[in-house]
Amino acid sequence: MAIYRLMISRHGKLLGHFESDTPWAEEAARDVAARFPAESGYSVSPLKSCGERRLLEAGPDGVRVIHAERTFASTTLTLGQKT
């Protein structure tokens, strides 16, 4: 299942991000992106998960995950269109 992240800026200043990992994540990302119009100075950069990095520890009790971090790549969202 893909995870979508939107990086939201206004007048070139990063405001924050929205992330969705629901089964309808692409639809949710399109819905949120549509609420930040370019005419009002917003820019939305959509990203889609493409993998995960993990830091592992191996010891006498086996291997355990110390930290996991999703990796993202730029993608395109077509507003107003369902897939």
Structure characterization notes:
This protein is mainly beta and 83 residues long. It has one domain (4-74). 11% of the residues lie in helices and 55% in strands. The protein has a four-stranded antiparallel β-sheet. A hairpin with a 2-residue loop joins strand 1 and strand 2. The longest helix is centred in the middle third of the chain and has 9 residues, at 25-33. The model has no long low-confidence stretch (mean pLDDT 93).
Summarize the structure.
With 83 residues, the chain is mainly beta. It has one helix at residues 25-33; strands spanning 4-10, 13-20, 42-59, 62-74.
What topology, given as strand order, has the largest sheet?
2-1-3-4
Helix and strand succession? EEHEE
Low-confidence runs (pLDDT<50, min 5 residues)? none
Shape: elongated
Strand content: over 45%
Number of domains: 1
Total E-strand runs: 4
Overall mean pLDDT: 93
Number of helices: 1
Helix content: 10-25%
Distance between the termini: 14 Å
Largest sheet properties: 4 strands, antiparallel
SS class: mainly beta
Radius of gyration: 16 Å
Topology:
Blueprint: E1 4-10, E2 13-20, H1 25-33, E3 42-59, E4 62-74
Antiparallel strand pairs: 1-2, 1-3, 3-4
List keywords for this structure.
four-stranded antiparallel β-sheet; single chain; about 80 residues; mainly beta; about 10% helix; elongated
